[in-house]
Write a structure and sequence with these properties.
It is built from 6 helices and no strands. By secondary structure, it is an all-alpha fold. Helix 1 runs parallel beside helix 3, helix 2 runs antiparallel to helix 4 and helix 4 packs parallel to helix 6.
């Protein structure tokens, strides 16, 4: 169930955010190496805004279309109607990870372009620790609890990266 929901929720991430993050990275790295922090900020924030708009549309689409998508793609053979319903519910919740995951892909590359690999690693470790704590707290909720822990920890990771990069690339950076 979780595997099927994850496959569907990750598709927009791969199509929208991953390609954008890979494509912008050489430009950010060049600008960062040249010390053009204002340009790094402008380029990164512009791509982030576009990606977030598309990811939010994709997230809404997955939430609205979760039940028909899961029924069409998975409900056959041993996969019952109740399995489809449960998978669709997990997909709806897992879709809420998309904005945080998309932001993380872009923001981490912003740090890497500036030669900072330590900050994303620390933020990732904090997020992983939070995920573990939340899984323990939400253990009684089963798959819903693990998915909820994912949503919260990924969102915190994105916020930590955004806050850290905003400090490295202040509004008035030259």
């Amino acid at each position: 169930v979780l595997t099927n929901a994850t496959r569907l929720s990750i598709l927009p991430l791969e199509l929208i955010a991953s390609g954008s993050a890979i494509a912008i990275f050489p430009t950010l790295s060049l600008l960062g190496a040249q010390g053009k922090l204002g340009e790094v900020r402008a380029q990164l924030w512009a791509v982030l805004r576009r990606v977030m708009k598309l990811i939010l549309i994709a997230t809404a689409g997955l939430i609205v279309l979760a039940f028909p998508l899961v029924r069409i793609l998975f409900q056959y053979g041993q996969f019952s109607a109740s399995d489809a319903t449960f998978t669709a519910q997990i997909l709806m919740l897992a879709s809420l990870c998309l904005p945080g995951l998309a932001a993380q892909q872009l923001l981490a590359r912003g740090f890497f372009a500036l030669g900072d690999t330590k900050t994303p690693a620390i933020a990732g470790a904090i997020s992983m620790a939070l995920f573990g704590v939340l899984c323990a707290i939400f253990w009684s909720m089963g798959t819903f609890g693990v998915t909820l822990a994912s949503v919260v920890s990924v969102s915190v990771l994105a916020l930590l990266l955004w806050r850290g990069l905003s400090r490295k690339l202040p509004q008035n950076s030259a």
